[in-house]
């Protein structure tokens, strides 16, 4: 058996797509419906996608070859059995967060006839070698909930669940309020405002919404994620760039507003919560429904139980319909039990789980 790195060379990638990528998705789609390939799949389009993917330093791809006639021959002309593959992506820590650099196992597949041979362990060992070369202390991956065989294998290696990707069809969302129903009690004056792409506005948003969200999340999961000395100006610039796109929105909830015509950066209102959302990027070779991804949802502690979270979700649902999305999706940390319970109450169900393991704990 030989494990070879696949370079961004067209003929080699044609071999990989036909011998590995297509069989991988065809087999996985029998268990995970979201991996079904589109009907009019263009192989050349898939090859060009991988050419672009591998033309970056953060992405790597290896294939496992058996019965190799000549180890020195190019991958595009080699006469061998393609027994499996693994693809990785380096995920560097965002500069405002105290996370380690991680190597993500994007896809791993072993042909059915080679399962039990130890080939999967050999592919993971190659991934670990890359992780050490890149200075990563952890491996991460996402796996579909339905893929029980893969989950069992990763758990055997030492991977543990860190978070879930959840989704729900719009028609299945169960909310206790309607579009026309105000929030309750002392908080009935709260109203939603869209955050515009403006520097002064974004400075106010970062201080009143973004920082409280991450501090609250740190308390919920038992660890703080933010670096001690954040460059606020750089953070605002990143938000301005991130929101200056046509398919992303952010709303804040304001209470005690004296003048609704005052700019968001000048208002004396209380910032009670916020939500951001964007159309989820799709894999153009697969055939899942269009989804709106809820990036963050936060309600300040004194407003919990007022119905504010439901009203923020309602606004996201309205935006989803405007964008032609039939489902909502989001990510949530395992340790954030309050959020998990709320999303489950709304009807969200996990469809993928994020797992990680430190290199020192991998059981290979």
Task: Describe the protein's topology.
Blueprint (H helix, E strand, L loop, with lengths): L1 E4 L4 H19 L14 H12 L4 E8 L14 E11 L10 E9 L8 H15 L4 E7 L3 H10 L2 E10 L21 E4 L4 H23 L10 H12 L4 E8 L14 E10 L11 E9 L8 H15 L4 E7 L3 H10 L2 E10 L6
Parallel strand pairs: 4-5, 10-11
Antiparallel strand pairs: 1-2, 2-3, 3-4, 5-12, 6-11, 6-12, 7-8, 8-9, 9-10
Helix pairs in contact: 1-2, 5-6
Structure in words:
Helices cover 32% and strands 27% of the residues. With 364 residues, it is α+β, with helices and mostly antiparallel strands. The chain has 2 domains: 162 residues, Aminopeptidase (3-Layer(aba) Sandwich); 173 residues, Aminopeptidase, CATH 3.40.630. A 12-stranded mixed sheet has the order 1-2-3-4-5-12-6-11-10-9-8-7, sandwiched between helices. Strand 4, helix 3 and strand 5 form a beta-alpha-beta unit. Helix 1 crosses helix 2 and helix 5 crosses helix 6. It is elongated. The chain starts with a strand and ends in a 6-residue tail after the last strand.
Rg from C-alpha positions? 23 Å
- State the shape: elongated
Relative helix content = 25-40%
CATH top level class name of the largest domain? Alpha Beta
Characterize the biggest β-sheet.
Answer: 12 strands, mixed
What labels would you give this structure?
single chain; 364 residues; alpha+beta; Aminopeptidase; twelve-stranded mixed beta sheet
